[in-house]
């Protein structure tokens, strides 16, 4: 959850982050295993929404947007949980499909692109979104049921790897020899941080650097990842399978480097809210 304030000064809008809360519920683990969210996890989810509702009220938020992705859209009781939160907590949740998820992330990353070809890779817990850009325009997009939590727990069908490879080969044309990857998601941000890059402004890693970080982490036990690398437990277990997905796509696309702009779905959501409400400041 992020709460931001928008200020208009000398004709320029500035978006300032006031609050950011990350609480890992792992809804997907239930869904990918049992096909539904269990009552115990549903109860925690409702409590979390109540906590967010209190923060929204305390900050006197004027407008908000809540998006649910692969876990809730694939859960057999996802719609019932959304209705329960709406009726009992007073918050409306949008269950979005992979295309809508990709479109929202697009709003956040497009400012980092130029006319060259780019392959955007967004790895979540339950799905991976791939988008190809050229001349600032998105020319292809696809969502795959492959994510860090799903892969870690062996809930990914083997043919998904081949489906990703086929899609990449089909949509990256011969004139895209030097395509650059753009990575979003918490795991690639942490991989970049662990690479200890000296030039922090460039926000770029080579394929070899991603491989090096993944190799280093994979050799460590969970306790070593948590205590030596200071990773949160919910990051320490999924970071290696997430790296596998980024690397698999980059290799198939022959991308030698990846840009890590440190933006994602929430940033696209903020862009949507900003566009909807900026007239109030004019």
From TrEMBL:
GO MF, one example: pyrophosphatase activity
Give the source's domain of life in one word.
Answer: Bacteria
The UniProt record lists the Ppx/GppA phosphatase N-terminal domain at 22-270
Annotated signal sequence range: none
Q: Which Pfam families match?
A: Ppx-GppA
Classification via InterPro entries: ATPase_NBD, GppA/Ppx_hydrolase, Ppx_GppA_N
Q: What protein name does the entry list?
A: Exopolyphosphatase / guanosine-5'-triphosphate,3'-diphosphate pyrophosphatase
Which organism does this record belong to?
A: Flexibacter flexilis DSM 6793
């Amino acid at each position: 959850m992020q709460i931001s304030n928008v200020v208009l000064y000398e004709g320029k809008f500035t978006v300032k982050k006031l609050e950011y809360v990350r609480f890992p519920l792992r809804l997907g683990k239930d869904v990918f295993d049992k096909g539904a969210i269990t009552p115990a996890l549903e109860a925690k989810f409702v409590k979390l929404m109540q906590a967010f509702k209190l923060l929204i009220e305390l900050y006197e938020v004027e407008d908000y947007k809540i998006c649910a992705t692969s876990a809730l859209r694939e859960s057999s009781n996802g719609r019932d949980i959304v209705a329960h939160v709406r009726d009992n907590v007073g918050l409306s949740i949008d269950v979005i499909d992979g295309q809508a998820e990709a479109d929202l992330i697009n709003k956040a990353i497009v400012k980092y692109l130029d006319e060259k070809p780019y392959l955007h890779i967004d790895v979540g817990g339950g799905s991976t979104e791939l988008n190809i850009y050229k001349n600032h325009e998105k020319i292809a997009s696809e969502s795959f049921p492959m994510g860090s939590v799903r892969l870690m727990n062996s809930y990914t069908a083997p043919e998904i790897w081949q489906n990703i490879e086929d899609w990449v080969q089909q949509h990256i044309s011969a004139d895209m020899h030097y395509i650059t990857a753009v990575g979003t998601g918490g795991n690639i941000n942490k991989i970049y941080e662990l690479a200890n890059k000296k030039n922090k402004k460039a926000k770029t890693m080579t394929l070899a650097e991603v491989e090096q970080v993944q190799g280093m982490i994979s050799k460590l036990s969970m306790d070593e990842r948590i205590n030596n690398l200071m990773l949160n437990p919910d990051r320490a277990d999924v970071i290696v399978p997430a790296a596998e997905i980024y690397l698999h796509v980059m290799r198939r696309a022959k991308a030698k480097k990846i840009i890590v702009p440190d933006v994602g779905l929430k940033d696209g959501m903020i862009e949507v809210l900003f566009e909807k409400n900026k007239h109030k400041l004019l």
